[in-house]
Task: structure prediction
Amino acid sequence: MLETLDNQQLCEQLCAQVTLRRRENGMIMLETPFSFPDGDQYSLYLTETRTGGVRISDGGHTLLHLSYENDIDKLFSGTRSVLFERIIAEQGVYFDQETGQFFTESAIVDLARATFRLGQALTSVYDLTFLNRSRVASTFYDDLYEQILDVVSSEKVHRSFEIPGLANAEYYQVDFCIDGKNSVPLFLIGIPNQDKARLATIFLEYYHRNKIEFESLLVFENQQEMPRADLARLSNIGGEMIASLNAEDDFRRKLLKKAA
Result:
């Protein structure tokens, strides 16, 4: 079957999926097979550039579409921001912060390639919304920090804290040290996976062995997925626990009880 396929047939099939539509306001809309999971097509618009080329833009529609079910500000902070910048750099597209538009420019002869690059970039940006607590451990700490700040003011939170006077403190940093009641610091430790659970056990034992005075609060990504042996060891050495970041009421109550 593939032996009978030639370039012309392939071009005809691909071209049938891409059309130009002139709107009443004079703008030219490029309709493609690209679409969001809910079925809405990507909105792509063509305009001429001063150099005689063409600009392809999403008109700000992508971020608007994502804002219906997502907090767009998260795309521009923490781990997601790094990935966001990498996406637009790798695809050779641009993002206008003032208008919220993604766009790229090319010569007419390279319009097809540029369209695919922009479409790929928009798809990758959409995929960033799936970087939730259950898929990427690195964003777990960003989300945990954000949730802490919903309860405690930022000046009371010290991230990647090195305990003064502790030998080799740089190797035993606390995820979040929070000013505690009665001048006793609260060590809040995030547990996104089994490896961190074991590391947290070692750290806590080291703190106790060196007679560090502290309270501890351990926050899991998903406590139910933690092996029983690791959870038992951590329970013996650690303080109160939060089963997941979704347990927001429990998180707030326990944090307020210990934070200054």
User: Anything to note?
Assistant: The helical segments are 7-15, 61-67, 78-91, 111-127, 137-149, 194-209, 228-237, 248-258.
